Every structure is written in structure tokens, then in C-alpha cells.
Amino acid sequence: MARGAHQAPGGFWTVAAAPTRCWMAGVSAASAAGKIGSFLSKRPYAPPSWASHLSPAPSQTFSLGHFPTPIHKWNLPNLPNGTEVWIKRDDISGMQLSGNKVRKLEFLMADAVAQGADCVITVGGIQSNHCRATAVAAKYINLDCYLILRTSKLLVDKDPGLVGNLLVERLVGAHIDLVSKEEYGKIGSVALADLLKKKLLEEGRKPYVIPVGGSNSLGTWGYIEAIREIEHQIQISGDVQFDDIVVACGSGGTIAGLALGSKLSSLKAKVHAFSVCDDPGYFHSYVQDLIDGLHSDLRSHDLVNIENAKGLGYAMNTAEELKFVKDIATATGIVLDPVYSGKAAYGMLKDMGANPAKWEGRKILFVHTGGLLGLYDKVDELSSLSGSWRRMDLEESVPRKDGTVPSQVIHEEFREGCRIITCLDLDSACRISSTSLSGLIPYLACTFISINSSRGIKATQSQKPTNLLNKRRN
């Protein structure tokens, strides 16, 4: 077994992660990991040697995420013969900042600070993971954050609430402007951000605009850097090589970085993207623009295969998709978000079922891009699918802290606003009677009855004990 690889209980194999980013010049891995103040710090950046020809290259980056994120075997059911799926856990790259957006924001926030910005602007859907991550990252480095969030026409004039990503955004004090989907479609994200930027400039602010999803050529470096991280994890493990990388696609920057990095590095894995909005043609064109912006001579169609997985539409799910998310969590312990990775994994396994020969014998790295908070927006739809619950069955013979044994209740009902309890056992009768008389649990009546020749008690409890207690005291 290669150094750095181990098998965990239950058959999970883990590729050991490097203790920290080993390329930090002049600082050993161990000392960098333990250095106080290294997190949330700005530092010089040097591209991987295989990407040194790409331009423009960032000169600085902020440490915002907990990297490297682990890679481990993902025991998915019903895989083709000889197929292995491993999972890159970018969902645990942080807490409030979890997910793929963090890697892009490390470069974008460094650029914002370098340009002297005092606030940032970005745009997204009402449950945008990117907007939540941007709001947190901005506060981490003492910048204000302005979010333009897209919602339905019926809700645009209402309080958006505190569900999922909105809760975090509002807790950290992000300024939120709502627009309807119709307004968003007519005006566009770029024009909306420019409009807000103009207003802020007139107020004397210094805004920096981050595009939807953080997906521009600068943000692309986040996943070029992720490829270097994966490459290093493979090197220290020694016995794992990936044939394919599978990931969700929502704005294009993540797949551009993965595809470009995989091609240029030693990885050489084929990238498969499952689009959760728009169509493959749009994303091939957008990715081409991003890699052209880095002066690469490569073609997006040669780098990445993009398949449509949007289903009903962005952030909309079929019952089958949600059941899939639940079933995968139950089977493997991995919780996928319903908007991005859930649809990508669903699309991947569906394709494996339809075209098993395409995937047989291949080692696949699935990149979990996070978005767990988005699940909270689906609680109503997931309620019927989630695990069951029950009240714990406590044996009547189990003594309580006061040394007593609970009464043997044989009947309980509500009648005319009152609780009716009938129980056997003279000791129970005495306890209920004394409790009633003490005024702790007032009863309307407390009388002994005969049930099957056994002594018992029937007590009627008021649902408004305070009023009843006052009457009894009076």
C-alpha cells in the first residue's frame, strides 16, 4: 500500500491530503499549517509550472478555504463492472464559505483589495451559494457586500426570509437588493451590477464587481490551482490515478479551471460537466471565452464534455431527483445539494446505467461543489422522503430520577378542552392525587374508580392550568 493511502472501516479508501499547500515559498508544510494568522492572510501567488504560460496570472491570493480538501472512495450503488468513483470534498472547504466558490474568491478578493475596494457587488439566485460565500468572505477581510438576488415576481416585494443561504447573508450584514426573474432576464446580470456600482460610486464608495458564480478568467485560477492540489494528493498517495473528473456546471468557471488544468498538468483526466442551467452549447462558448481570456490556444470542446442535467430548470427538482439525493445520503452518508452536485451525480449514474460500457473499469473523481444550505429551501418537498421518527418506547418498570415508577396508563384522551387520563395501580393514583393537590398539575377532578376489579384513578387535567390554578387558590 502506498504511503498516505489507508482503508477506513466499511471499505472506504482515503487519499491522504497534504498537510498544507506545499508550494508556499520558504515555509515548510508543517510550520505553515501551524502558523497563527496564516488563515485569512494575503500572500504572493506563483502558478504551477505547467500553467506559467497562461496570462494574466494572479500575483496574490487570500487564504479563505481549508485546503487541501480530502479525496476518498465513494461506494455508490449499481456501478458498472470495475468502475470506481472517488469524491473530492470541496463541500467541506469551510463552514459558511464551503464549496467551489471559495477557490475563486481567494483570487477575486485579493484583486478587490489590491484595487482599493471598500465593498464588493455580486449577483445570483435567491439561494445562491456564491452570494453567501461572497458575503462571508467580504466580512472576513473587512469589506461591505452588496447582493443582487433574483426571485419570483410574486416575492420580489416581500421579505425574503431567513432560509438557507439567506440566513447567513443577513447575519453577516450583506445589503440585499431583490429583482424579479423577469427583470433579470430583460436587463441581465452585468447591467444590474453596473447600475448598483454607479449608485455606490456616487455615494463615494469604491465597489468591486464579482461576476455571477465568480466565473471570469481570474476566478478560473481557483480550479487551475485545485488541479495542482489533486496532482499533489495523487503523488503522495502513489497508487491512484483518475481517468475522468465529473462535476456540476452552473456558471462555467469551475469546469474551465478543471478542464484547462487537467489538460496542462500530469493529470490528463477527461472532464465531464453536467449543466444545471442553460444548455451545453452556451457553456462551451462561455468556457471558450474564459480560457481565451488566459491566452490559451486550446478549444473547450477538446477539454470538456458537457451534458444537460437541468431537468425542470435551475434550482427546480423532480421528485425522482430529490429521492435520489435522499437515497445517496442513506446509502453512503454523503449529502448532496439538490441544485448542483445532486443533479450532477444523478446525471452521472443515469448515464452509467444507460451506457455502462462507456464507464466500465474507469476511475472517476467526482467533485462535490458544496451547497448544503440550499437543502433548507427544499424541506417541504423532502419531508415525505426523510427518515422516520418515533417516541422512544420506555418500559413502565424503568424507575425515574425520583425513584418512582411511572403510572400504568391504560387510556388517554382529550374531551371538551380537557385531558382525560385513566390508569391502574393505587400508588399511581396517590401520586396523581398528591400532584393535583400540590397545584403543580391541576386536575378538574380526581376520583378513584374500579376497573376490572382493580383499583385505579381517573383524572381530568385542564389545558389552561394557570387559570384553573388561580380558581383553586381563590
UniProtKB/TrEMBL annotation:
Catalysed reactions listed for this entry: D-cysteine + H2O = hydrogen sulfide + pyruvate + NH4(+) + H(+)
Entries under Pfam families matching the protein: PALP (PF00291)
Broad EC category: lyase
Keyword presence, Repeat: no
A GO CC term attached to the entry: mitochondrion
Cofactor: pyridoxal 5'-phosphate
Listed InterPro entries: ACCD_DCysDesulf, D-Cys_desShydrase, TrpB-like_PALP, TrpB-like_PALP_sf
E.C. numbers: 4.4.1.15
Location of this chain's protein in the cell: Mitochondrion
Domain Tryptophan synthase beta chain-like PALP as annotated: residue spans: 63-370
Signal peptide per UniProt: none
Keyword entries, A-Z: Lyase, Mitochondrion, Pyridoxal phosphate, Transit peptide
Family named by the database record: Belongs to the ACC deaminase/D-cysteine desulfhydrase family.
Protein name in the entry: D-cysteine desulfhydrase
Organism this protein belongs to: Oryza barthii
